[in-house]
Amino acid sequence: MAIKLVTLPSTEFGAELERDGSEEFRVVYRPSERNPDFYIYHGLWYPEEDYPDGYIAVPFGSVYGGIQMFAAGTAFANVEGSTDDPKPGHYSTWRQLMKDKISNYTTCCAETDTIYRSATRQRDMRFQCTYGGNEKPNYVDYKKGIWMQGAHVLMNETSSRKPSEGAIVYMLPLCQAHNIYDKITGTFGTGYFMKLRRAQEVITLTGFISSSTIQNAILKEELEMQSLQTTEKPQLSVGLEFTFMGVDLGAYYTKKIDGYQIYVAPMNVDNKAEISLSEMIEQFNQLAGAGSLSEDDVKRKIETEENSETVANIDWGSIKFCLKMLFLNIDSEKDTKTTEYALSLQIIADGLIPKEITVFNVKSLSFNIWNTKRQNVLDKMALSTPESL
Asked: pTM of the predicted model, to two decimals?
């Protein structure tokens, strides 16, 4: 299942969910195709579903925006892709969340026996509510009975769709038929819209999550997992922001009982900043510690591809480097300090290197150097070691 479970800070409204157990509910967000700085609401989390790479599931409280009241007659349409009711944690349905947060959740809030076709805005005369829009008496099990489903919808909309960028998503009580009618398009919940038959409280979900918020949460969780291996109770953990090789990066610093740890996890960097070899070495050693990487380390990597005579003709001062991926872990405890690193670099070599040097007969060259043995880092950065071949 290609999805990360990420624990984000709760919203102001969502903080109270932690006290009643509703934090077990999760909501899935997908990367924005138009704006890489944000994630967009995708749907409810189904533990058994396979999700594309890059999708994340966050606690409901992280995106919970409180309660809003909408007037009778307000149009609304289904969010596509969130029809079935999930069973997150030890809960059985999202209905339980509605029960805690909104009033009048036991009857369908849409106009009874009424839906409107999106294409014509005309009423579909075939439609009927499930059990008249009421709860089935003596409700016991959702598979055997009918209940008001926690439906995710778009308010003031007349066509079902996946949320657009910036859209706020709402949850309200609908009968099963209103939520998953399929007689118009053949697909559950699509091709129609509804109207409120009464003034109704609805639960709101925020539309965007910042990509930097997601990345920082992932870094923090990975750091905490590493810290648990060395100490049971870190004394301090704070986020760091710094510039390295022309790129603004985030990391985490943890103060431990007998030392500290600085951790930057593997990350993709959209970078076009070009710096020289000496600048690259200087910046890296300022971050990782004096002597962690030397110019000889880099030149020796090139020497493995070309003989020393041709390498001697390279104008190292003219070569420019771009950072593409980075992993760094500095662990200091008492009198010992270990530094693990892995860098993926791009060498901008077009027009700068003699034509007879074959390793640089292209416009750019991918170049990796590392000292870590962490297999998950090597795998993510597409590096290989003799032991792994």
From this structure: 0.56
